[in-house]
Amino acid sequence: MSKIHDYTGPILEIDKLSISFFTRLREIPAVMDFSVKVAPGEAVGLVGESGCGKSTVALGVMRDLGKNGRIVGGSIKFKGRDMEKMTPDELRDVRGNEIAMIYQEPMASLNPAMKIGRQLMEVPMIHEGVSETEAYNRALEVVTDVKLPDPKRMLSSYPHQLSGGQQQRIVIAMALMSKPSLLILDEPTTALDVTVEAAVVELVKDLGKKYGTSMLFISHNLGLVLETCDKICVMYSGEAVERGEIETVFNNMQHPYTQALFRSIPLPGADKNSRPLVAIPGNFPLPHERPKGCNFGPRCDYYEEGLCDEGFVPMFPADKAGDHETRCLKFKSIDWNAPLEVGEQKEKGEIGEVVLKMENLKKYYEVAANALFGGGETRVVKANETLSFEARESETLAIVGESGCGKSTFAKVLMGLETATDGKIELDGKSIEHVAIEDRDTKTVADVQMVFQNPFDTLNPSMTVGRQIIRALEIFGIGDSDEARRERMLNLLDLVKLPRAFADRMPRQLSGGQKQRVGIARAFAGDARIVVADEPVSALDVSVQAAVTDLLMEIQREHKTTLLFISHDLSIVRYLSDRVMVMYLGHVVELGTTDDIFSPPYHPYTEALLSAVPIADTKIKKTHIVLEGDIPSAMNPPSGCPFQTRCRWKEQVPGELCDREVPPVKDLGNGHQIKCHLDDATLKKMEPVIKLADAAE
Amino acid sequence: MEPLTWFGAFTWFGSFLGVAITVAIVSGLAAMLLSLTNSSTKGAFSLFNGIAVVLLLVVGFGYVYGMMSGGGGIQMSTLARMLGVLVLLGLFAAMLGYFMNTFFDDPAATMGALFSKALLAIAIICGVWLLWTLLFAGSGHRAYVDGLAPDAMPDAETLAAEKRIAIMQGRGIIASIFMRFMPVWISLTVIIVVSMIYKRKLGLYGKLYDNVIGMVGFSLVMFWVLTAFYTGVFDLISTHGPLEQASGMKNKLPGTPLRGAESGEYAFYLLGGDNLARDVFSRMVKGSVTVIIIAPLATLFAFMVGITLGLPAGYFSGPALNRESIGTKIVGALFAIIALAILFTSGISNFLIVLVVLAVLFALMFKGSLDTVLSFLANLILAFPVILLFYLLVTPEIVQTGLPQYMAIVLFFFPIIFVAVLINSRFKTQPAKNSKYLMLTLIPMAIIYAVTINAPESKINILGALDFFNPDPGVLVVFVSVVFVNSPTVFRIVRGLALDINSRDYVAAAQTRGEGPWYIMLWEILPNARGPLIVDFCLRIGYTTILLGTLGFFGLGLSPESPDWGSTINDGRKLLMIYAHPALPPAFALLSLVLGLNLLADGLREESLKD
Q1: What does the DSSP 8-state code read for residue A290?
Q2: Chain A closest-CA separation from residue B592 CA (Å)
Q3: What is the DSSP string of A421-442?
Q4: Is the pLDDT reported for residue A583 higher than 60?
Q5: Stretch A620-638: mean pLDDT, rounded?
Q6: Does the distance separating the beta carbons of A440 and B513 come in below 8 Å?
Q7: Model pTM?
Q8: 20 to 30 A from A551, CA-CA: which of A382, A403, B537, B540?
């Protein structure tokens, strides 16, 4: 029955695979000389930045390269059979049956017009021709396995009735329906929230063990790979640059790119002064503009002319057993343990006066059942509930929370796109909570600006970069002639460290990081004093993240800007913020300085959030907390404490207080506020979530 | 004088062509059917079995039908013979399947290759024939002159006239038509060659040249555009005037010589004469002018209306409408215009009814949104049968009430609004530039607007003597109705696109820096909706062309003697069973233009989706 145990060799053997895409101009090599072996029951992580070819490898295995893509060299063997030689019929039998794939966007993998049960039952009915009842029973079993509540109801619901996390579980269930020997996961949790991500990752790990399935785990997140995989393969620009056991690679890396990658991600356990982020210089090469010799050469610290730019670089074994390999010519001569050269320490700007003050801000939306005739009851969505905080000059205030926590609504109210329902927003002592953006004077508008999340969406695709910045200058009334404005625009490009020639480029000619820089330049066009950065780096590759983050901090130092940094990534928050505000379902559950937030006592939600962040450091031990269930809908929030449905400390509070009353704000001193019913004694007992493993001393 | 034949003097290529076409049909069909049956022997066998069954059914039905109609039916012996043939056919199919599988690895592919070779052969044969005919058309005449005795030689003038006629007779109809279109061929070649050379620098238009379908579509469209240009501006291509009648040419077949043609005159009716003895070819060529001018222009106006209303509908689709908002003002103004138009046209009682309806709509707006109301209105128009609407708008009684003119007042105002808002929102921050640009565009537009809607001896005659331009009232009516019918569809497309783009970050960025709604709509949303809009524009010109044809076909709007394709098809239709030639050329012209536009839209869509 199961296809897993009748073959003992490696499940998947990719040998010197090369894949190219053919466009009308040229051949674009996407993957070159790529080899990997997946043993039965093993999980192999494929890590790299976007565009490095990791998804192409997965598609190559599935033979789903489209009409432009072709395998131009090497071989893929599945259970010893060369997939090249399979007929379309055999391939169809293998896909979805022996190899299953899970994609990033769960909603895109499910048919919105079919009930979940039908979709799941299809798999064994098509591949094994089992009867409908048996298929149904199996579907029920698998849905129970992926820990979905009320499996029978799940089977008879449509995909849109489930949350993102539940959908992804269904996709996983569907992949497991046929008990495949190999599971390919292409960024399976990128679209999910951190706490949900943690639960899904946990599930995948458990199921892998239970079913004995081999896994190819594709991700850009080193921490996630560390948590899930046995082996790792780091890719750069179409090539595997380093490969080996996960512990070996993390502790004893042998390729400059892997090292640079690790240095560019913030680790929540590390201090920002002793371990600053180091961005990888330069840009990811376009596939048709790769340098001669080592692809990483031009960005490498150890680059040596005459050696690294001469011809093809093969994989070298880095240890005796040959399990650890690296594609570097100089790996033997590099001192891998050399301490990081810490650049000049820049003093943080002095934190000044209060610039922005919010008091009991409330934003409610009314949702009518029938918009046209007004009938039916109106429901109130409480997007923001009693928000109070202050932000000072040159301070970074991080706002942390998952989707639906109300951080975007808060930004909208602050920007004036929406007006507040109740409460107060004071900007320099002027209250602006009821002033919509069209009624604000130019100075106020220019003072409060925003940097957006999605770099591919933040610039108008049909206007040149320069034109977009100049437009901002025009609207803010800066510069009295076209020439003056152009000069100022060029200065702004200098400020964000972009070449002046970019002024005449179209956004599509820029990379994600460059677009984000233009977005920052545009926000600072009118010398903004408060900048709301809505996840400005979360859509960027890690190596670029560091550079953009540094840029933001540098501009902040120069301009004494107040930065409201909205993020769900606690690592980066710890790295750059002075104070942190944690939000959940429209409530501020915790507010305090960064150190207070990251050390106990925690709010139970903060604790779970901290534990959910994948950390790419083998030396760090985390307390393992997995939150049950999903974030409740803001349309229908739980009674009492918003977090009570998922809280693991709930039993500690006597008298079901959590069910009945919204907790009061408790001040723990030093401006550290917490919204929880837990008494001080319990709070004191809390253990730190993140610990260095050898922190015994 | 001998009439022209279709292929002229050189018909010996015909047999080659026949062979090539037969091969093409047989191999093409075989390839298609074989690939359907997965190219196995069994498949091929069952395929021929299928054909046999169909034949059997035909024979059977024929027999029964024959019996019933009293003709005695097919003789039993005939039936038996047919069945015998079927058995033989089945055997043949089995053998053929066996044969194909033995000799070809992949019969379907082989047949496919044969098919494409046959097509190539057809193209080469046609090309060679055309070249040959054009080069040697006069050879017969030369031989005849050479054979003449010196004393029987006519004078030079007669000789030249005879030579001209002889050359044309040598060419035949097809080659002569080809020669008439020479300016179009030359320009088309130049355009294509130049574009091919610079295609990498020409953006989306350049990418079209990577796409066979798009290129074919573009060539077809350009063919008619150039034809309209040369015949409309330089009076080239057409051989006679569109209204010229020649005695004795009534319903004459293609290639008929003119009786007593004068020396400057074209001596033949290339595609025959219609029932009023006018030249079909010339009317077809002249008819392209009407279509090529009205269709794109009407579509453009429909787009202006659709965009100007669709953008705010999509942008202000939020929950309820603010009484103070710009959207409310737009709709209010719109309603006022409509109400006033009704008041002027049909008196106080209708006005009151309309006023009540509009008041209800306006009230709805505060419950719903601008979007609700505008979409409702658009749906109202869309729900009405188009042809019926046309009949209503175009019938003389309605035209006399001035309704089309009032509609023109409203519809033609939209381009002015569009341009004014476009410029104002962009340059609002620089007042000097703003007023300069506004004046440069709005004053000419306002003048054109005023003289277009103003017409002597109609309800709107305010300008009087100042009115220097009067469009043909029929054309105006057709134009207005086409715009009116097309704009709701455009409205819906634009609204949908605006709804989608509304959620982009660059729109939010514009809002957070305090841009006005019109700037965001016209400069942030519209340019990024251009892809689908361009494609729809091409398709819609096609629909409009068909609509114009339909209108002409019903004899609505344009004057009866107008050479536009719809009217000429309708004229020809009456005698279609006896004389097919007057109706077919305009029908073919309409077909090729619409096909071209569709292919062009397909090509554009495909290419704009690629990297």
Answers
A1: P
A2: 29
A3: SEEEEEETTEE-TT--GGGS-H
A4: yes
A5: 75
A6: no
A7: 0.78
A8: A403
